[in-house]
Each structure stands twice: as C-alpha cells, then as structure tokens.
Predict the 3D structure of the following.
Amino acid sequence: MTTVLKTEDLRKQFGQLTAVDDVSIEIDDDKITSIIGPNGAGKTTFYNLLTGVLEPTSGSIWLRSGDGDDLADVTDAEPHEVAQAGLSRSYQITNIFEGLTVRENVRVARISHDGSRLDFRSRATGDESVEADVEELLELTGLTDIADTPCDTLSHGEKRTVEIALALAIEPNVFLMDEPTAGMNPTEVTEIVSLIRELDEDLDATFVVTEHNMDVVTDISDRIVVLAEGSILADGAPEDVLTDERVTEAYLGSDSV
Amino acid sequence: MSATDTGGRVSRFGSAVAEGWTRERFGLLGAVALVLIALAPPFQVYLFTDFLVVALFALGFNLLYGYTGLLSFGHGLFYAGGAYGIAIVLRDLGPVIADVVGAGISPLVTFVLGGVVGLVLVVLVAVPVGWLSVRLEEIYFALITLAFGMLGYSLIIQDPAGLTNGTDGVIVLLGTVDLGGFSLRIGGRRIYYAISAVTVVAATYGVWRVVNSPFGTVCKAIRESPDRAAALGIDVGHHRWMTFIVSAAVVGIAGVLRAGLASVASPGLTHWSTSAIAVIATVIGGATYFYGPIVGAFIFLYIRWAISRFPALEAYWELFFGALLIAVVLFFKQGAVGGLLLLRDRLFGDGDGGGGGGALNGGQATAATDDGAESGDDNARADRGDNS
C-alpha cells in the first residue's frame, strides 16, 4: 500500500463562503475510494483544487508522480502540469473534443503524453507507436467499433466512455472520476460500472470516484469519504460509513437544531 | 463469371478512378489551370494574383480561428508587417545590394531578401503581441488583437522612426533583372503572378502539413475544449502562442506578396477593415474546412469585381457583402464549402453522413468492403483531411 495523493489542511474560500474547509486526506493505491456528499458539499471544488483549476486559499496537495514512491508538491501547479505529473480526471458534464472522431480524441491525449505536441513536420497519423497505443486503448475501453465516428453523433453513454478513454490515455497514477454515471440509463450504468472494475484490475491507476448513485457507490467502493459543508464527515469502509447516523442526517438534510 | 465478380470489378474500377481523381489528377488539373491563367488578359491575371494573396492571408488567419478557436481582428498588422518589411528593404537597401551583387541580378536578390526580412519582422512582432493576446479568449481576444492592429496603424501613420513615410506609405519598385540579353521585369503582371502562384501553393501545402501534424491535431482539440486539453497535460496558453506565431508568419508571406502586387505598402493594410477581409472571406468560405478561406477569398474578390462592372452598384459593394455575410451566418453556418458538400450529398446521396467522402465515395465505400479494412481506413483519413 502506497499513498498516491495527499492533501494537508486544504482550504478554499470564496469570499465569506468556505467551500472546502481544511480537508486532509490520504488516498491509497490499493483501494477504489469514493467521495460522496450532498449537493454543495464541496466535491467539485475539491476536485478543481486537486487538478489545479482553482488555487487553494491555504493547505497543500501532494501527488505521486512518475514511477517513484515519493510525493511531489503540486499545490501551485497549473492544470496541465498536474496532468503531466500523473493526475487525470473525467468530468461530470461530458467534456470531450466533440468535433473530432473517437480515435482523434484519444490520439490528442497520446500526443500529449508522448510529448510530440509541437511537432508540426510529421503527420499526426504517422507515428506508429502512438497509433498502436491509440488502438490498444480503444480496444481496452471497447470503442474500436465506433473509432471513426465523430463524437458529436455519439450516444450519451458512449461519450462517457470516451471521457474515460481520454483520461486513461495519459497513463495517470490517479484517476479522478466526477460522477461517471451522471445522466445514464440503467443499462449504461451497469456497463460503465463493470468497465470501471475491469480497468481498476488491469491498470496501475488508482481510482477516486464521486457519485450520486448509491448503488454504484456501494458496488465499487473499498472506501467511502463523506464530505459535508466542505469538511470530512465520515471516512471508512462502505458498511461502516453508510450506517453512520451523521451521514444519513447530512443526506436527508436534517438541519433541525 | 458471377454477378459478385462483376460487381467487385466495377467497384475496384470505381475506386481506382476515385483515388486517382481525388489526389494526383486534381493536383495536375489545378497546376494546368494555374498555368493557363497566366495566359489570360493582364487584368484577369492581376485579379487572380489578388485572389491568391487574399486566400493566403485568410488561410493564415484561419489557422488561429477555424483550427484553434481564436478570432483575431488584428491580423492586418502582420499583413502590413510583411509588406513594409520588403518595401523598406527595397527602398533603403536596394542600392547597397546592387553594389554587392551587381546591378543585373540585384532586383531579384533584393526581392528575396526583402521577403525574408518581412517574414522575420512579422515573427518578431508576433512573438510579444501573441504572448500578450493569448492570455485572453473569445471577444476579449478579438478586442486586444483589434487594438494591436490599430496601434500598428497609428505607429505607421505617425512614423516616429522615419521609416514608414506616414499616410502615403512606401512605394515598392521591384525593378528588372538584366542578365546580358535576358531581362525579366519582376513586377510584370505575368511574372509576378508566377512568383505569387508558386509561393502561395508552397505556403498552402505548408499550412496543410501543419494542420495535419501532431501540432495541428492539438490545435483542433484546443478549439473543441481548452480545459479538457489542459486536463490532458497540454499547455494551452503556450500552444495558442505558438499557433499565433505560425499564423502571423503565413499572413506575413501574404503581406510580402501584397506589397509587390499593389506597388505600395500602405497603412491601410493594418487597418481593422483589412483584418476584416480575412474574417469575411473565412466565414463566407467556411472556417471548419481547410479550403474554406480559399473558396471564400475567391467569392469575395470575384463578386467585388463583378459588382465593379456596374458603376451604379459599385458604391454599394460593401452593402452587398453585408447582406451576403448575414445570409451565410444565418443559413450556411458551414460557409460555401459546407453548403457545396451538403448539396453534393443531396444530389449524389451516398449516405455518408459525415459529408466528407464525396460524389465518388459511393465507389469507394463498396470497394472498402471488398479490399478490406486498409482502404476503408485510407478513405476515412482522406475525408478528415477535407473536413477538419
């Protein structure tokens, strides 16, 4: 067991509002961790802090980068630097390159990972090692059949899968999934859950998931962290956390004081 | 011989014709057309040269707009940069160069050197201007580039360094190459057309290579979603900056050609109304297609010429373009190229959906099942080249 991601007293304030309130957490590589919480609990802000989109008010973020076990300080890193350091994300609201085909989407990610972004002399399709990696990833995520389809014509479920393929293409150490089943029908939910399990077994990446669908959460999580009003309310194994009184209270919104 | 065999042969034949016509033969046809145009009456040669230069201007602009998603309203600055670069070299260094290389060949040497100086000047300007501009997006990017363009306009008019000759601009005299019996007037309509055609074709091929390279692929991703690109480890600001510089350089080449064609480098080149020509040509032609700006430039120049044939209408030619632009934006969001592809798909309906393949794609699609995945893949790639 190694720690792959760590925050220390991470805090984000928007004016008077404290969206993330001194959160300290360590994510281990041998578990799928779910971060749950009612709307407005600070999950998305927390993700945006981790990925460098927002700058923390105080506190620090540490990420295992490269192959070593050492943690690097990424508190002040830009989003692309965080991604290069080994943290990848998928978005709650699908965020893929809609105008490009599925294969081109994955190719962009592989070009980024390959470091050939500034190569304007060769053909984008010309690098055989990149193309082989693209094919492998399409196969892994089951997208081979629709590889040449423009993404704006895909179904919602397929777009969610492209979202995952993109995030995986940069070979992350940590993969933050923001509500992978958002807006999906039950069949698609089942498919995506089995894909996540499969990927977790096959790949080195450590999965961190936020999710509203409690069935999915109990199904895939080894550990659940509950955020409420910006701070950690409960943290532990699913059976302990979900029976915790404070958690049910937070979810039912009982603010009767 | 069974029916399937015949079908197979017909489709293979269809595929061969299609392959040939989409690449080499169209290229050859284009080259023959370019040569034939040189034989047209002088004014038509001039008009076509004008079209080529504006096409390159719009093509360079579209690298930033259609491919990277940044609308610049100040690319006239780089158009003027190229023009003034060569104009000033011709004016101030012409005699010096003649002393060094001899009077006979010196006009050509000066022209080439002036072009290189124009290009270098544009890059030197684009580096800081781009660095500051790409910090902004959308309307703010359009406004800051507009401001830089107009800053260039007032600097050229005020002429603090005594180089640009204020509102009159710098006269461009290309001169005549004279090598014992063989003489060549560089500014001659047909000679200048030949120089422009070769330059524009070469530059267009260069831009095409750029948009189909890993660099260009990343540009398209940034256009689609900058924050997603950043989350994949792409330094979006830096990539936009680099694209800005490449785009400006292409426009600079067009500016160099413009100076020789107009025989003057004038301040109007960096006025916002000149920058707008690139925008209008690109929108009319279709920003999402590689050839969109070229088709748009063609429509722009030839319609303007057609209107000029009717003196009563000529005063209102801008009004006409206003109306055309409104029609395109409202009804043909993909521009003329998008409209043509749609029309072709309607007429030859091949169920291709993507609209990339073409009238001849019916044959290709059949052949793909016949010849295996390889050729199918090739088709798809060619389609994307057309489309993106």
